[in-house]
Every structure is written in C-alpha cells, then in structure tokens.
Amino acid sequence: MKKIHVVGLGLLGGSFALALKKIMPQIKFTGYDTNSQNQADALSLGIIDEAKTEADLDTDIIVLATPADTLPSLLTKALDKIGSQTLVMDFGSTKSNLCSVVSMHPKRAHYLAGHPIAGTEYSGPKAAKADLLDRKVFIVCEMEKTDLHLKSKAYEVLEALNMKLRFMDPEEHDSQLAFVSHLSHISSFMLGKTVLDKMEDDKNIFDMAGSGFASTVRLAKSSPAMWAPIMKENKKNILEALSMYIVNLSKFRDRILEDDYEGVFREMEKINKIRDILDLE
Amino acid sequence: MKKIHVVGLGLLGGSFALALKKIMPQIKFTGYDTNSQNQADALSLGIIDEAKTEADLDTDIIVLATPADTLPSLLTKALDKIGSQTLVMDFGSTKSNLCSVVSMHPKRAHYLAGHPIAGTEYSGPKAAKADLLDRKVFIVCEMEKTDLHLKSKAYEVLEALNMKLRFMDPEEHDSQLAFVSHLSHISSFMLGKTVLDKMEDDKNIFDMAGSGFASTVRLAKSSPAMWAPIMKENKKNILEALSMYIVNLSKFRDRILEDDYEGVFREMEKINKIRDILDLE
Predict the structure, then answer these.
(1) Which tens digits make up the pLDDT trace of B57-112?
(2) What residues form the membrane-spanning segments (chains A, B) (predicted)?
(3) Which of A168, A184, A213 represents a domain boundary (last residue)?
C-alpha cells in the first residue's frame, strides 16, 4: 500500500486519512475538494500530502467521500480512467442507485460499495478526527462484484482502522438506513424548526432547554450539503420511514386528545425495550 | 437549616439530597417513597437518613419530587398540615394546574412552585448523582405568592447547589416546556417506536445504528411513570407543540415527494442557526 487518493476532504474523508496516516505512515495521500478552502485546510492539517485533481495511475485506493448525489457521476468517471491495480470505494450513505448506475460498467470489479457508520453533526476537514472511524461498522454492499485482489486492499486498511465489516445488499442497506439514520436527522431538524418557530413568540425559550433537548436536536446542526442529497438518493425509503413516523406521532396525539393516558403509558413502556437493545452495543 | 423531607426518592429527589449533603452535612434528610424498594435503596445509598411517611413539624423544607399527576393532591395534603416554619416546594415539570389547585389554599404562602431543568433518561434512586443539578436552571413560578422568609430557605439551598434561578409565570412555563422538553420526549419515543416496528422485518436493523440515532432516541429510555402524567398535566400545550411538529414533518415530506431538494436544502440551512443558539449556552 503506497498511495491513496481522497475526493472530498470533509469530515469522513479527512478522518479516514488522519487515522490511516498514524497507522501506515508510509502511505502517500493525495486528494481533492471542489471547495478550495477545504482543500487548503486539508493540506495544512496534514490530511493530504499533495492536492491533485486526478489520482495517479499507481494509486492503490481512490476514496470518494462527497455528497450522495455527486457520487454516481464521480464514480463513473473514476472507473473510466482507473489504473489496472486501483480500487475505488465510496463512503456514501445511500447505495442502491449508485450500485445500479455502475452495474454494467466494464470496470465494475474495481469498485467497492462502502458506508462507514460514523459521523458527527459537524462537517469539513477541521471537524475530522483520527478516532472517528475507530471500531465503527463499515457496510459493504455487493461484495461479490468486486475483484478479490483489489478488495483485499480495502480490507487491509479497514482492518487497520479497527472497523467492523458488515455485508448486505444495497436495497436492504438503504431501507435500514432510512430508519436508523436518515429519519433521525429529519426528526431532529423538524424538532429544531418547531422550537425556532415558537421562539418568534418566546425569545428566551432556549434558556429553558436542558440536556434532553440538546441531545434530541443535535443532528439539526448537520450539513444540508450532505443531507439534502440523501433525501433525493433515498427518496422511496425515506418517505416510507417518515410516513410511519408521522402516523405514530398522530396516533400518540390522538391518545392524548382522548385522555387515554393509560394507553400513553403502555406505549412508552413498550418502547422502553430500546434500552436493552441500545445498551447491548 | 436543620431538616429537609423529600417525598419521591428518585432521580431528582435523590440527586438533590446527595448534592446538598455534601455542601451542608449538618442537615438531616428524612423522606418517603411509595415504592418500598426505592425507599430502601435511598436509605442504603445515604440519600435519606431516616424513612418517614410524614415530615416532622420542625422540617425546614419539604420537597415533592414525584410524578406530575400526583403533585396536586400531595401538595394540598402537605399544606394542610404544614409546620409554621416549613416551606414546601415541588420539582414538577408542569406548573399551571398545580398553581391553580392551591391558589386559594390558606397556606399558599408556604409553597414555592419550582422546576429544575435537569434529568437523564434513567430513573430511581440508583440513577441519582450529586452533580445532576449543578449549574442547571431552576425555574420558580409565582414567586410573589410565597412568603419572603420561607422563600429565603429555598434560595439558600438552591444557591448552595449553584443553580441558576429563572422566574416566569406558570402558563409561560408550561407552554415553553412543551416545546423544549415535552416534545423532545415524544419525538424520541416515536422515533424509537418507528424503528422497533421496522425491526419486525429486519432483525439486525440496530446493528446499523450509529451515534446519531443513539443521541436522537436517547429520551425514549425515559420512565413512563414520570412522562405519561406530564402528557396529562400539560395536555393543551403539548397538543399545540405536537401538532406543529407533525405539520412541519408533513411539509418536509411533501417537499421530498415533489422532488423539491432545493427547498429541503434551504429549510435545513435555516434550521442550522440552532448551532449558534445552542452553542451560546
């Protein structure tokens, strides 16, 4: 492993490079970001050693860590001119459309569809942290479609980063992520909006906010440049999850409206089993 | 200050006693919990020095730290037989109904309506922590209705605990709390429910959950015995907040449905200003 090229020098791309440089200092990192300030920051923070629009032909791995809607075209272009020993992998939060776009590409075997389950509400290279990916899940889709030899390059770095590999198909991935990740972001953004709307009457309302609100609304700080494209790329599954969520909220509202507090209690009690599930991890 | 009696030896009552015992070790704490296991735990954890159903007549402060729907009757009964130098204060999350129930009580001046903005998703005496209340906001309602001399007893202990006093009227309190606290709990519980429902198809869905989901769903671990009564006591304001939330979610869903991702982006960008507001604190 000698050379890695990272496209998109933000939170994920930056954290990946910072972590790997500690473990494999011999690797040269090149990279590129359409935001020139981010690219300059990535250079000065030591995320990349050299800024380059195109990966060298002897690059081992090209990592695409850009917003979800830019990936289909970036990935296609990368495969079009990829070196014979180069693997390209992406870090996108949606997988179905991407896998389908490149399914007939002659260099499909050079691609590994990936998704690290890691992040914070912050973005950009300055938010990157060397420990962000440590012991996190890395989902791989359609593993059987990637060349065995090239795939081993990805596994080498992912193992070095202590990441836990999980394999699933792209449709399953997108459906599950709509529920455990994309919906959380929407619920948090809309909670933020509802309280901001209320703030127009009550200027000091945030003084009353405790740690519970801060935790529940945290994801509303996330980057729209990353999240609006996810809504587009995973539209069908997100609409399903969001509709179920709205139905559940409406039923809960009906219980309160009808003074059915025993029903409210029983409902909450059932949901409490999430304690055991989350504490297992 | 010689004696404090705590009714309800859970997270809040327990944390209050543990913290104050460190700062004012001369105070004797008596207390009571309808749950006999909690009461035994509170004794063995040193939250109270002696279990007592009724406060002694020379008690300085009686603290009511029980679920919101039990407070009107507990408060009325406490005032009925209160000692001449005793103040009673409560830690309830709703204030309007409670203040209105005791508004004509001959001993109204012995009562201070309070609400510490502090908590965790855990409950019971074992969840109590001496630093839970440290530097948190303590809301006082209808301060003018409490006897000046008795009120100073409360201020003495709240200041010793480093709590930040805020004064507001009960209606304003309940309306604001519906938005910044009660709604967060509902959004979190219903997020938990939506993912649990989905789990019936996808058993391993929680493997895919990252820190974002964990943070957003954290409040769904909260105690139904505390939270169902809040829905009842603050029905009107909670219905208003919840309805606004559902409308916001439905409008957001419509944008996705209509492929208006620019609208989605702009909406998220506006909500991002919550970053500045929350980081100010």
Answers:
(1) 999 999 999 999 999 999 999 999 999 999 999 999 999 999 999 999 999 999 99
(2) none
(3) A168
